Structure formats: structure tokens, C-alpha cells
Structure prediction request, 118 residues.
Amino acid sequence: MKMWIPQPSSRLPCALIILCASLFFIIIVLIILFRTPGEKPADRTTEFKIGNLSESMALKVGQLSQEGTKIAEKLQQMDTNLKTIQTDTSIGQLQRDMQRVLSAIGRLSNRINKLDNS
Prediction:
């Protein structure tokens, strides 16, 4: 029976394989590091932009709500003015109607007096 005896391996090919594997690993790590250096500052600027946008939106909403209250006040003033105009015109109309009725009654009384005198 023959015993299996391992052949002596050279250290040079093993060292080259280890060197190539480690260089490959280092290259992959460097590629990853150089591809993503600007992400953190980009996230910060995005946060600042979102913060500024939020503040400007809050300011615009505040301005719009103030304008809305001003418009509501003006509409209420217009409503009260229209009501006063309507009451004024209705009072004027009633006064004119009363004058017509009084003049008609006056004419009727004059005719009755003329009929009684004749």
C-alpha cells in the first residue's frame, strides 16, 4: 500500500494568491469609499432645504390666513352695508306707498264731499 504524501508546495504561489486576494479586497473597499463620499453633506443640504421650505410654507400659510380674515371682515362689512341699504330702500318704498295711499284717500274724501254738496 502506498501512502499518500503531499507534494511540497511552493510558498511563492501561495503568497501571490494571498497578495492578489488582499489587493482585490482593498480595491473593492476603496471603490466603495470613493463612490460615496458626498452623501452625508448632500443629506445635510437636503435637510437645510427642507427646513427652509418648511419655514417659508409656514410664513405663506400665516399670510394667507391673515388675508383670509381680512377678506372675511370685508365680506361681513359688505353684508351689513347691504342690509342697511335694503332697510333704507324698504323704508323709502314704504314712505312712497304711504304717500300714494294718503293722496288716494284725500282724493276719495274730496269726491265724497263733492257728492254730498251736490
User: Anything to note?
Assistant: The chain is about 90% helix and 0% strand. The mean pLDDT is 83. Residues 39-117 form the longest helix (79 residues).
